[in-house]
Amino acid sequence: MTKPTPFIAGNWKMNETIAEAIALVEALKAEIQGVSGVDIAVAPTFTALDRVAGAVKGSNIQLAAQNVHWEKSGAFTGEIAPAMLSEIGCAWAIIGHSERRQFFGETDEGVNKRARAAIANGIGAIVCVGETLDEREAGKTLEVVGRQVTEGLKGMSAEDSRLLVIAYEPVWAIGTGKVATTAQAQEVHAHIRQLLKAQFGDEAGAAVRIQYGGSVKPSNAAELLAQPDINGALVGGASLKAADFAAIIKAV
Ligand code: PGA
Q1: By three-state DSSP, how is residue 81 classified?
Q2: How far apart are CA 111 and CA 96, in angstroms?
Q3: Ligand 1 atom closest to residue 216's alpha carbon, by position in its atom list
Q4: 14-46 tens-digit pLDDT
Q5: How much is the pLDDT for 57?
Q6: If you average pLDDT over residues 163-175, what whole number do you get?
Q7: pLDDT score at 89
Q8: What are the two backbone dihedrals, phi and then psi, of residue 178, each rounded to the nearest 5 degrees?
Q9: 141: which residues sit within 8 A by CB, 6+ positions away?
Q10: Cα separation of 14 and 149, whole Å?
């Protein structure tokens, strides 16, 4: 079976003012002009989304949000509804990032609600999963990631899976400079692939992109992306430098 189109997304986290975000995306546009055969997205802060949407119009860069709520509107202080993201041209939302789980109490159940609401509104859901160092050392990696995938995707159909991306990000590899070995990453990706095929069927399960995330850099991207079940990357730190992010995209 042929591999799905690779997908490289940059998670800018709580970085870049609006002016800095525009400068970064303009620099990126220049670096990757004419690059094809790979889907590309950047996830600025909510305040920069609208202006960055204007800057990427007509380019090969898509827009992602860093979270999304499941309700349409109402008393949910600090949250953003799916239609509000669609309104400004947001194609994707990152959901259940380990920083959201770790610092803001997000649960598998909430991840599931957010992801299903995004997809129901035509927004692609990048569902993040990954084990902590303690869980890896206790031999629980596949169990933890398996639970996050199963619970996070509960109730989704094969049709829904067309707007689904999984990002496997070992928590111990995020922002630490420690990257999983290609064998460690591929092992978890293969496990996720099995779960996707079990839920969505072989064909739809094979078509879901599984990104790797955690200290992805120009120097390690090509080797990771060459693994059979790695279909892209979710990049944090290196996505804040246009040249580095472009080099990762070109490593595809
Ligand atoms: P990092 O972050 O590339 O800085 O490790 C990845 C992420 O959190 O998505």
Answers
A1: coil
A2: 5
A3: 3
A4: 999 999 999 999 999 999 999 999 999 999 999
A5: 96
A6: 96
A7: 96
A8: -90, 115
A9: 131, 135, 170, 188
A10: 26
Instruction: Please name the amino acid found at residue 49.
Output: L
Residue with tokens 């206790």: 138
What tokens appear for 133 in the block? Answer: 């160092």
Which H helix or E strand runs over 125? Answer: strand 124-129
Task: Name the nearest CA neighbour of 249 among 225, 213, 214.
Answer: 225
pLDDT grade for 1, boundaries at 50, 70 and 90: low
Which domains does the chain possess? 7-250 (3.20.20.70)
User: Which residue, judged by its Cα, is nearest atom 1 of ligand 1?
Assistant: 236
Q: What are phi and psi of 42, to 5 degrees?
A: -125, 145
Interval between CA 201 and ligand 1 midpoint (Å): 30
Sequence-distant (6+) residues with CB within 8 A of 33 are none
Phi-psi sector, 214: left (phi>0), alpha (psi -120 to 50), beta: left
Closest CA to 64 of 111, 148, 7: 7
The catalytic residue among 97, 106, 189, 191 is 97
Distance CA(101)–CA(115), nearest Å, equals 14
Computed from CA positions of residues 104, 146, 5, 31, in that sequence, does the dihedral angle turn out positive or negative? positive
Alpha carbons within 13 A on the beta-carbon side of 149: 31
Catalytic residue among 69, 131, 169, 189: 169
Q: Are 151 and 109 in contact (CB under 8 A)?
A: yes
Inter-residue contact 13 to 98 (CB < 8 Å):
no
CA angle 237, 238, 241 (to 5 degrees): 110
How far apart are alpha carbons 57 and 207 in whole angstroms?
Answer: 27
pTM beyond cutoff 0.90: yes
- What's the CA-to-centroid distance between 176 and ligand 1, angstroms? 9
One-letter amino acid for residue 135 of the chain: E
